[in-house]
Amino acid sequence: MDFSDRQTALSHDILMSIDKPSRYTGGEPNSVMKDDADIRFVMCFPDVYEIGMSHIGMQILYGMFNSMPDVWCERLFSPWTDLDRIMRERNIPLFSLESQQPVKTADFLGVTLQYEMCYTNILQIFELSGIPFYSADRTEDDPIVIGGGPCVYNPEPIADYFDIFYIGEGEVRYRELFDLYKRFKAENKSREEYLREASHIEGIYVPSLYEVTYDENGRFTEMTPRYEDVPARVKKQLVKNMDESFYPTAPVVPFIRATQDRAVIEVQRGCIRNCRFCQAGQIYKPVRERSPEQLKELAREILKNTGYEELSLSSLSTSDYTHLKELLDYLMEYCGEKKINISLPSLRIDAFSLDVMSKVQDIKKSSLTFAPEAGSQRMRDVINKGLTEEDILHGSEMAFKGGWNKVKLYFMLGLPFEEESDAVAIAELCNKVAGVYFDTVPKSERQGSVQITASSSFFVPKPFTAFQWAEMNTPEQFVEKAKITKAAVRAQLNQKRISYHYHDTGTTIIEGIFARGDRKVAKAIEYAYRHGAIFDAWTETFSYEGWIKAFEETGVDYKDYIFRVRDDDENFPWDFIDSGVNKSFLLREWHNAAKAQKSTNCRNQCMGCGAGAFGCGVCVE
Amino acid sequence: MSVTVRFKFMRTGPVRYLGHLDMLRYFQKAVMKAELDAKYTEGFHPHQIMSFAYPLGVGMETYGDYMDLEMNACEDAEALMGRLNAVMHEGIKVTGAVILREKALNAMAAVAEADYELVVTGDGKVSGDSEKKNAETVLTAAINELMARSEITGVKSGKNIRPGIRILECRRCKDYKGSNDEGADDYELRLVMRLSSGSKLNVRPADVFDKLCGTEAVNESGIRFKVTHLYRMEIYGNDKDGRIVALNDKTAE
Question: Interface pTM (ipTM) of the complex?
Fold first, then answer.
């Protein structure tokens, strides 16, 4: 196919009148064109192009689907507000990037759900495509709408909008869904029949096939299948052997600068650390590594096929990768020859990582990053963050001696069992780090002075974590704590060397509601969208007041989802998902947190969380 | 030691919506993929030494733009062209490559003039043959009116751009791909321009078009003209005697 003859869905006049028109014209290097395919799958990341194209999960599934001869996978992102307005005014149907054809003509519309604040953007996608919001209203003319990604670990707030949720890692079950689709289409079976049969595939959740009951206060009690053949629990799907799973060696390379504008190799999936606030750490259990041999080959292939000038390593905790030294030694030599930069993820600061960083970064310009998450040792024990003050101070000392003088520290406020003294401890820790600089670097060797940048986000309890029972702070409590920290920073000896920032409270609250809400939330999302909510992850378009009004107008008791400690034996809307990690383990961890009692990590000693049943990764090492 | 290679390239189709920096990034990646022996800057974040004669605006297509790349060594520029085209994609193609002689001006400094072709239609009014002929008459009158002036003030610069309009004509043209040969009536109207470019006097084709639309001839006709394609056809520099030569000409300064 001659690419220069490709027709764009939008006219020249429109493209010339909007910001970054090449967000919408497709045709990037390594994008896939097909003339004919049995199944057309439109994969949507419901945010702007530059964000969506930075997501490796989407690239994995795009490459994997397009490696199937009978499937054509295309991409779709949220039109920014300028184009949104034009499409509404002129009744232009939303189109996928590759074919530039209306989304509604596809067989499947897959939506990757990476963060809760994209929920209104999903409704925008539906509306501009001419697809009904609710699964119940869709007909044979509409694509099958599938949701995937980390947010499906509590899909209930958006359950009514989706025909199917795929629970777990996408590499495993899509082929079965496609084969079933082809068979049922050939047999002229209905959409309803397809969804019913799809629910028998492991990991596939069809929300319309379940009944939800609530108690007299409107609180969730249980969810049961409407039919005997529909499974009561849906099991998370995961890749057992990373080396045998698909990884794209020719990812699509955006023309315009994406947020992550570099080649990425995924060194491992999962995390051994068991931090109690972290959802990714639980839902991707157990940790599974790729072999260094495969990673070296992947890096070479991807760089060759993309022309990227930068390579990055991806995982939840790269320092825990057991072959890190071997891999980095190889990559530094290979990339050095080819003038390719290596961008290091946040490694744990130790002698090894400092040595590597000094080789690939300009020390004067780069900064060191620590994520202690909490200021006091007691709080770090509560959240099971296995990083001690000693680690931080010793790491800082080594770094300062090595020539660094910029340090970034990440914290959370509003954690369970937090007291005023814990907010103060953040400031004290920053002060100690600055103090280490003055103690270890003699005046004559100081270049500039030490700069400590501390920031705190506000904690959101997530399903499938030890803190799924926890209560959230109110916006007022969040701000009060941030002010305590800020005042404490100002009271420190080295306060001039410390800058402190904190995040927005409004998005945090709404995220908390979506994270642990139930099916009733859907109508509030629709209300908010109809009253202008869109791109809620962007501060310029987010309105907290608008959201609170939406909950009030639709009678959704949002406070009940977030502002209370949940009972140990409470049923949760997401309990029907079998993530492999037992609820009893999480509850034990919740009780340990209350006692500020640390736990171990998976490589040290098995804690019997239940993920061992998958029989792979660190559980069988 | 290093040598500079000047590549001539075209871009047509949907890639015309890329901005200048996107083109730079695209070519940097192409050089990596083609494994050319490019020279790099020193330091922790080495990058290629690449420059363009004339940044391509969003929406503009080209058959004659230039990119200079510094290389450690190069014996056969034509061979590099083949290697680059092997990794090119979607409407961007290298059409020439020459090794610059020492002391040649860099591409941007060398630019003196450029040729453009603007495919013109009117708001739904210029489709049939008689309408096209009418539009052609109107545009020709507008050109005569404009060129008769001694002073035309540029939209952005405020400078007199009249001396910078070297050629301005309205022509009947076939589609550039030569695909429509069904009949003599099947043509499009193009404004053909040669305009001063570069640091001394830079005339933009859109400015000239706007000025044409502001003439009495166009106002009286009631036609609202618009541009559907804007092509840069060639970029020129000067030779040592001040004559106009294409930027990849061996005699260019």
Answer: 0.93
Contact A481, A413 (CB under 8 A): yes
Query: Taking a C-beta distance cutoff of 8 angstroms, is the pair A593, A467 a contact?
Result: yes
Count of domains in chain A?
Answer: 2
Looking at residue B178, its pLDDT comes to: 45
User: Does the domain made of B3-110 have the CATH classification 3.30.70.580?
Assistant: yes
Do A160 and A300 belong together in one domain?
no
Whether A299 is in a domain gets the answer yes
| Cβ A237 vs Cβ A286: under 8 Å | no
Q: Is residue A41 part of a domain?
A: yes
Provide, rounded to the nearest whole percent, the portion of chain A with pLDDT above 70: 99
Nearest to A4 among B12, B43, B59 (CB): B12
* Chain B positions in Cβ-Cβ contact with residue A8 (cut-off 8 Å): 14
The answer to whether residue B133 scores a pLDDT higher than 60 is yes
Residue positions counted in chain B? 253
Q: Do B29 and A16 touch (CB under 8 A)?
A: no
Residue by residue, DSSP assigns A342-358 as: EE------SHHHHHHHH
* CA neighbor of A227 nearest in space, from A216, A211, A239, A204: A211
Q: Which domain, by its residues, includes A344?
A: 262-361+578-621
**Domain identity same for A50 and A193:** yes
Last residue of a domain, one of A235, A252, A286: A235
**Mutate which of A100, A252, A338, A339 to disrupt the B interface (most B C-beta within 10 Å)?**
A339
pTM: 0.95
For residues A298-321, average pLDDT? 95
- Average pLDDT taken over every residue of chain A: 95
pLDDT tens per residue across span B20-52: 999 999 999 999 999 999 999 988 788 999 999
CATH code of the region B113-246 = 3.30.70
Mean pLDDT of B215-225: 93
Nearest to B14 among A6, A307, A338 (CB): A6
Picking from A183, A216, A235, the residue at the C-terminal end of a domain is A235
pLDDT at residue B1 greater than cutoff 80: no
Mapped onto helix, strand or coil, the DSSP state of residue A118 is: helix
- What stretches of A64-156 adopt beta strand conformation (E)? 71-77, 108-112, 144-148
**To which residue do tokens 């359950």 refer?**
A159
What's the 3-state SS for A450-481?
CEEEEEEEECCCCCCCHHHHCCCCCHHHHHHH
